[in-house]
């Protein structure tokens, strides 16, 4: 019998000082990416340069290609708005697809939210 357990995505947005943090928990795939997309879109509309939008994916349990595409779209949107866009990729479930696609060269990756918020204007990579 196939495993039909599905951990739905839960997304929450919060303001931390002048930065906006969007936290995702659960499975990020083509069926759930709209939830993350909506929250990131609002976060980027709220953001004011030079304060970042941080996408915290440390609670993500599955990360599919729809998630990769969403990060790339939002990174481009943030760049156009001159708002730093930082991604917390704390574990291999998220890091492996990012690295396999070469997006670690494009995205600002951090191991936790505190480091993403504390960073200056140059990105670092999680590891």
TrEMBL record:
The lineage of its organism: Bacteria, Bacillati, Actinomycetota, Actinomycetes, Pseudonocardiales. One of its GO terms (molecular function) is anti-sigma factor antagonist activity. Residues 9-120 form the STAS domain. This is Anti-sigma factor antagonist. Signal peptide: none annotated. It holds the Pfam family STAS. InterPro entries: Anti-sigma_ant (IPR003658), STAS_dom (IPR002645), STAS_dom_sf (IPR036513). Belongs to the anti-sigma-factor antagonist family.
